[in-house]
Amino acid sequence: MPKNFSDFRINIGETRAFIRTDSKKAANAAINSIKYSRSELDKYILKNPNFFQSLTPLDMPQKSPEIIKRMTSAAKFAGVGPMAAVAGAISDLAVDAMIDEGAKIAVVENGGEISANSCIELNIGIISGSPSISGRFGLKIRPDEMPLGICTSSATLSHALTFGEADAVTILAENAALGDAASTAICNEVKGKDIEKSIERALELTKNIRGVRGAIIIHSGFIGTVGKIPQIISIKGLEESHLITIKNL
């Protein structure tokens, strides 16, 4: 089992990605995967502009690039437009490329959406728009809980389109494409003057999205959880090199 890993940060167009792996070859595979996914997506959108604009699920033509297939599928499960799954789908495909190259540690964070498949534990810190909570706790992800998508949407930190009010909605899902789409869908539902009721309602809706394992909702100092949540940890004093922080900025 590898004990050493390396971290890489790359900027490719609008993609700002963090990569953690035990293999330089796998890191290169992830970078190439991200470039290819972005290229395929850009070409598809030029021919199908509604794919970029739609806020509701779309049908998928039989012959579509893999990035389009994954985004479309995840969006249907969550009931949102396919672009809500873009960052997560790019992360998933990059992790798949790393595993194909023999990586034992394969983690990609892209715009707050993490795809993880690792033989060692991962410590993940959660940033939200709630100052009393943000950056104070995180999740310890065990190897037997992966592969896993850990994705966060925020109405107070993110520049992405949202119709909700949550400081952070973190979704644990079978993959990051689904987690990305689901976090958007659930964040949209956290709204209204009764904060506790809005969180309870959103958590209940989370149960209906197949493939979602658990959710954490943070709003105005309140926290609600549902499903299978990994071990919650304090990130105070945790070594920076062992911490992956998810945020939507």
User: How does the overall form come out from the CA principal axes?
Assistant: globular
CATH class: Alpha Beta
- Category from helices, strands and their pairing: alpha+beta
Q: What is the helix fraction of residues, given as a range?
A: 25-40%
What topology does this entry show?
Layout: E1 6-12, E2 15-21, H1 24-47, H2 49-53, H3 66-78, H4 86-100, E3 105-110, E4 113-118, E5 122-126, E6 137-141, E7 148-153, E8 168-173, H5 176-189, H6 195-206, E9 212-219, E10 222-227, E11 231-234, E12 243-246
Parallel strand pairs: 5-12
Antiparallel strand pairs: 1-2, 2-3, 3-4, 4-7, 5-6, 6-11, 7-8, 8-9, 9-10
Helix pairs in contact: 1-4, 3-5, 4-5, 5-6
Question: Your description of this structure?
Answer:
The chain is globular, with a radius of gyration of 17 Å. It has a single domain (6-246), classed as ApbE-like domains (T-fold), CATH 3.10.520.10. The strands form 2 sheets. The protein has an 8-stranded antiparallel sheet with strand order 1-2-3-4-7-8-9-10. Strands 11-6-5-12 form a 4-stranded mixed sheet, with no helix packed on it. The protein has helices at 24-47, 49-53, 66-78, 86-100, 176-189, 195-206; strands at residues 6-12, 15-21, 105-110, 113-118, 122-126, 137-141, 148-153, 168-173, 212-219, 222-227, 231-234, 243-246. Strand 1 (6-12) and strand 2 (15-21) form a beta hairpin. With 249 residues, the protein is an alpha+beta fold. Helix 4 runs antiparallel to helix 5 (176-189) and helix 5 (176-189) packs antiparallel against helix 6. The relative contact order is 0.15. It has 6 helices and 12 strands.
